């Protein structure tokens, strides 16, 4: 199969629509990462997503819809706080989990009675979703466990020959996957941290819980169970307080003839002297936006990537640390 990368225009959207309707897969941009989309109403199409990625079949997917899509055709029991959150944050990097009406195929939610709904804000994603006018089941458009893609080229590196079309919407600006929020209870509960933080949710909904997975429990959201986001090189992760130990490790690796790089934010980079640094940026939003891009760059240039956690650990950094720990820890 030949994989095309095309800019998002009328011709490529018509092609994407025909591929989706015929049961095929299309990679498309969102504001967070690129997604690998299939018709969420077709079990065969959704199974093809799992196969293309090599994704475990008990790891649920998210249904993506455009901003004018009536989600009450897919889900039920929408609490009042969810409507307030939708008004505040959608379209945007927030996924909300509701009770499913069973309209989408069971493969999307791995047999659970819930459905995760996402309304991305990326203009290209909205154009694609409006063109197909179907719920699109989509995980990140990469090989399972590899670093999530934030450019069309990243998708091509992982899925060339496995899918027919990548819609190129440029580099994603958000950088880490959406926050996933369980909206099936009296109080919203964060299942996966992201750019919409727990405090931001609580400010709108009044309160917000955070879920901690119990060993042996079924996965309720993407990103909860399995190793993720890993570059194809050796990695090491140091805390902020151990940053100078990380620098010593870097020097040891260089002395051994290894191509070593340090990945850190700008504040830590200032303490690293003349070490080779992949700089994540100056604030939490830049760090989130650059994380996957720098992990992908690291695997190209390094034998070992030595990551140093930022000093700030709250807010958006909760989601960043979740990904960084799974990638390098």
UniProtKB/TrEMBL annotation:
Alphabetic keyword roster: ATP-binding, Cytoplasm, Nucleotide-binding, Nucleotidyltransferase, Transferase, tRNA processing
UniProt keyword Transferase present: yes
InterPro entries reported for this sequence: DHBP_synth_RibB-like_a/b_dom, Sua5-like_dom, Sua5/YwlC_C, Sua5_C, T(6)A37_SUA5, TC-AMP_synthase_SUA5
Gene source species: Candidatus Coproplasma avicola
Primary location: cytoplasm
Binding residues annotated for L-threonine, in chain numbering: 32, 64, 138, 178
Location of the YrdC-like domain: 10-196
EC number: 2.7.7.87
A GO CC term attached to the entry: cytoplasm
Any GO MF annotation of the entry: tRNA binding
The protein's name: Threonylcarbamoyl-AMP synthase
Reactions that this protein is recorded to catalyse: L-threonine + hydrogencarbonate + ATP = L-threonylcarbamoyladenylate + diphosphate + H2O
